[in-house]
Fold this protein.
Amino acid sequence: MDDLISESAKRQLRKEIPALKAEILALYRSLDRKFGLHAAEVPIEFGFDEERLGAYTPSGNGQEESFYFSLVFVGYLSRESLHREDKLDLYRHEYAHYMQFHMDIPQEYRFRSGLHGSAWKYCCSLVGAAPSEYYRFGKGREKHDYEKALNNPWKNPHTALLDLAHRKREAEDSRNRMIRYRKGDTVVHPKFGSGTIEDLEQMTGSVRLTIRFPDAVRKIDQKWLLRSNYKKRS
Ligand SMILES: [Zn+2]
């Protein structure tokens, strides 16, 4: 895994920057026109981050405002390259972050704070981004359920109380269900040492990994593993 991307591959991928930039700017310009914003004027940076697909940094705290995209995932020639729909979804995802800082968010969509809270989800619904902070293959192609994402559980306090435990469990469930590894990944287990993942099985509330350790092959729920190398969008 340490050699996921070689120097020569990086050189190749850097050559794609102008085309990628043009693709992103075309989308951002059309969204800017629609919403009266100026995201297309924000600098776009590219890098080789393997854990992060993209990012939006607002200005402040001595930081310049910028967008960031990892060539590991958006580069056409990259082994990890995302499908076109997922790439567009990623661009929209980051645009929604930009919007969150540059638009008046109606009071009714401010019920859940946080980077990926209800204000951001509201922006996702406007630009057509998947209202989820995690990347999942094929998400860009799905029909998004904004009604569910923007459902304010606190509107009716009685329902909210009844629903809270259920929501907590659901959140936990979906966290455990998310596949965070790939075949061939090396993982470290506190007791069995370092092993290689040979198979992954999606279970109802978990992911079961088949791992070859030095002494034996074992099936282990991924939540018991120390190393988390899942890719998260920020
Ligand atoms: Zn995000």
